[in-house]
Design goal:
single chain, Serine Threonine Protein Phosphatase 5, Tetratricopeptide repeat, 20 helices
């Protein structure tokens, strides 16, 4: 053996002895942390933090599985403490996050490594502290807008750690995966981050036993705002299937969507469904009446256009009577329903105009019949408008529009009585216009 080889062997042996000695020292320190943290009466969190930081900085133990467990436990204690002296230990205000990250690294270790230095028992017992620390901080910061990313990060830790909470200790504090996702969604909602909202809402909707109808409603609102109505309706249908006791809420939203895109045929179906489930609701009858009224008005416009273009006139599918029946049904359940009374008068006026125009399309021997019927309808409409005007139910632009229609009716009838009424209504119309002009100055 050369001189160099003779000298090298003892040096290597000495290095190995030093390494083992250092590891033993760090393990001893780790056991000291364990004993300290398990002594509820004499626990010294400041000392534990000092010592666990040393362990985590040492190259021989910085990645030791048991060290991650005890770091998680120490930092969770710091994050949850109401003691000002302990709170000061969290200089960077990140003890909750450090605790969560440490526990996640611990649980990524093999089962064999987790069992060392009582780490597994301690981690399972005190994991709930790390979950609570992240939860509490997320709730606190989430009180202010602009904190979405921080809330998302903290609740992400909660969601990840709950996987290892086998005894569901966090659940006793109402901390669940669903609640964590909901908090993230709520923060995105506050910060008006719709695309981020969708991610959280989809997660909640995918949970089989999650029964909060708000997530379906909000998803529909988001897609409606994007004009993706079919997508919005799809989520409302899913909500009705999953939470049937909230069907009326979903149905109301579906109705609003169909109103927004003026899909009258779909509205009829929805109002029929609504009336079937709530047959004494005047709003549903009124709304279905509006749908019938609009469908008939559009049909008349198309027929008039066909006559003007000398093309084939499509047969009628709807009648003004359908809308009238629903307006009157609404008034039957609520005789003070002003909008139903207004629309009833407008419907008679529209019906009279329709019959009046039809005189030119019928044979000569039927002309007088149609003319007489139109006069009867005009008079009924005028009486209704007059009652509404006298009651004060018509105001501002509604009153101006009604007075214009009332003047037109008087022109159509054109007998002495109605010529006098026309003069009266023209005076009232001028007065109302002056009022409106003054209020707009």
């Amino acid at each position: 053996m050369s001189m160099k080889q003779q000298l090298l062997a003892p040096i290597l042996s000495l290095s190995l002895i030093c390494s083992v000695t250092q590891i033993n020292a760090q393990v001893k320190l780790l056991k000291g942390i364990r004993d300290n943290m398990m002594d509820d009466q004499n626990k010294d969190v400041a000392l534990a933090k000092y010592e666990i930081d040393k362990v985590m900085l040492h190259p021989e133990t910085k990645d030791m599985c048991a060290a991650w467990a005890w770091k998680g436990l120490v930092y969770a204690d710091i994050a949850l403490s109401s003691d000002s002296s302990i709170y000061k230990l969290d200089e960077n205000h990140n003890a909750a996050e450090l605790s969560a990250e440490a526990f996640l690294k611990f649980y990524s270790c093999s089962d064999e490594e987790q069992e060392k230095i009582d780490a597994k028992v301690a981690a399972d017992a005190y994991l709930v502290n790390a979950i609570s620390a992240c939860w509490n901080k997320a709730v606190y910061v989430g009180r202010e807008p602009g904190k979405y990313l921080e809330v998302k990060k903290l609740m992400g830790y909660v969601e990840s750690l709950l996987v290892y909470d086998k005894e569901e200790k966090a659940k006793t504090n109402n901390v669940t995966r669903e609640q964590a996702i909901y908090a993230v969604w709520r923060s995105a909602y506050v910060d008006t981050l719709e695309d981020e909202e969708i991610i959280s809402l989809e997660k909640l909707i995918a949970v089989p036993n999650y029964m909060n109808y708000v997530v379906f409603i909000r998803m529909a609102e988001i897609y409606s705002s994007k004009k993706q109505y079919e997508k919005a309706l799809e989520f409302l249908e899913k909500g009705k299937t999953k939470i049937p006791q909230k069907s009326s809420d979903f149905l109301d939203m579906q109705i609003n969507i169909e109103i927004e895109r003026e899909n009258m045929l779909a509205l009829l179906t929805k109002f029929n469904e609504a009336i079937e489930s709530n047959p004494e609701n005047p709003v549903y009858y009124f709304s279905r009446g509006v749908a019938y009224h609009k469908l008939k008005t559009d049909e008349v416009k198309n027929q008039d256009l066909a006559v003007k273009n000398k093309s084939k006139v499509a047969p009628s599918k709807y009648s003004f009577a359908q809308g009238l029946n629903d307006y009157r049904k609404a008034l039957e359940f609520d005789n003070g329903y002003v909008n139903a009374s207004k629309n009833e008068a407008i419907l008679f006026f529209d019906s009279a105009n329709y019959i009046y125009r039809m005189r030119a399309r019928v044979s000569a021997n039927e002309y007088e019949k149609f003319n007489s019927l139109s006069i009867v309808l005009y008079k009924q409409a005028l009486q209704m408008f007059e009652r509404l005007r006298e009651s004060g139910a018509l105001k501002d632009q509604d009153l101006i529009d009604a007075l214009k229609d009332m003047i037109m009716i008087c022109n159509k009838i054109s007998d002495k009585e109605h010529i006098d009424l026309k003069i009266k209504y023209e005076g009232l119309l001028k007065s109302e216009k002056r009022k409106q002009e003054s209020s707009n100055k």
